[in-house]
Design a protein that fits this description.
alpha/beta; single chain; about 325 residues; Carbamate kinase; about 15% strand
Length: about 325
């Protein structure tokens, strides 16, 4: 009989608390070095309290557009797109946010240096070491690559380094992109068995209506899990001028994290001591936490499958088929 044992989790092996924290493009670019330094000071404080952090950042393409406008505004008609729809997207895109794939890949290669340098300098000033990890969606979907990622993150956490993850846009194709790293952060949180996922965004959290259109919209401070009505509401809301995801991709990420029962926080990234306030709310069971907390108290995949497995043979293999499942249709085999 095949072994349907669930995947090894880092925090189970080391009994450590691991938080995955994701910063969006709008926050990274608008906040700049000052905000990144403030975040890293909070990360250093979390580390001292025994909370290990895996950081997921966006902002490479947006940073290149901000710092190198001569590249982002140029139109390179001689470049051939690698997908049939790219040419149509290029013709309709504005010069400030060109959509053709080769241009975005090139901007990512230019901007990645700017982004990691800011994290590196901020952490060095605190006596901490940054480690850059670039991923594509295929790296998560492929079993051996995912295991290699897990092993790498395990060793970096052992060394008390701060992994800085980003999508490798320079080689990602349009069909297999994460979407502003929201989905990436959720899949990484599941892969390493994170205690919680924190998504830093440019709004206060999840509202019952779009606050940019309705000033009377109410902030939802706690929800049990993402429901269809939340998805429907977010589907009509636009994203930021720099990011690709918007609230919809963040809710989808929260659903992914919920499959393993991982709580998710959607919070405004430039709030004073936002990460430390979340820590206090978790440690002291304080209900006055910032932003929106998605409890995800009931896991929906391998943990539930594991419990059912003990009741009969009909559930054999359910754990294996659900572990780290992603929406990629091109996968032939799910580990």
């Amino acid at each position: 009989m095949k072994n349907s044992r669930r995947p090894t989790r880092i925090n189970e092996r080391q009994n450590e608390r691991i938080w995955v924290i994701k910063a969006g493009s709008q926050m990274v670019v608008e906040g700049g070095p000052l905000l990144i330094r403030d975040w890293m000071r909070q990360v250093a404080s979390l580390q001292k309290d025994g909370i290990r952090v895996v950081w997921v950042t966006s902002g490479a393409i947006a940073s290149a557009r901000e710092r190198l406008p001569q590249f982002s505004s140029a139109q390179f008609s001689s470049v051939q797109s690698s997908t049939p729809g790219d040419a149509a997207r290029t013709s309709s895109a504005s010069p400030s946010k060109t959509r053709d794939l080769p241009t975005q890949q090139a901007l990512s290669a230019l901007g990645q240096i700017f982004v990691i340098e800011q994290y590196k300098l901020a952490l060095e000033n605190l006596g901490l070491q940054a480690a850059q990890v670039l991923l594509t969606a295929e790296d998560i979907a492929h079993r051996s690559r995912r295991q290699n990622l897990t092993n790498t993150l395990r060793r970096l956490i052992d060394w008390r380094a701060i992994p800085i993850l980003n999508e490798n846009d320079a080689v990602s194709t349009a069909e297999i992109q994460f979407g502003d790293n929201d989905r990436l952060s959720a899949l990484v949180a599941r892969a390493i068995g994170a205690e919680r996922l924190i998504i830093l965004t440019d709004i206060d959290g999840l509202y019952d209506q779009d606050p940019r259109q309705n000033p009377n919209a109410k902030l939802l401070t706690d929800i049990a899990r993402v429901q269809a009505r939340h998805i429907q509401s977010a589907s009509n809301a636009p994203g930021s001028s720099r990011g690709k995801g918007g609230m919809l991709s963040k809710l989808i990420a929260a659903q992914l994290a919920g499959r393993d029962g991982i709580p998710v926080h959607l919070v405004k990234g430039d709030l004073a001591k936002v990460l430390l306030r979340i820590q206090v709310s978790v440690t002291e069971a304080d209900e006055s936490h910032p932003g929106t907390r998605i409890l995800n108290s009931r896991p929906t995949t391998w943990r539930r499958a594991e419990r059912k497995q003990s009741t009969g043979k009909r559930q054999r293999g359910a754990l294996k088929s659900n572990a780290l499942r992603t929406p990629l249709r091109r996968r032939k085999r799910t580990p």
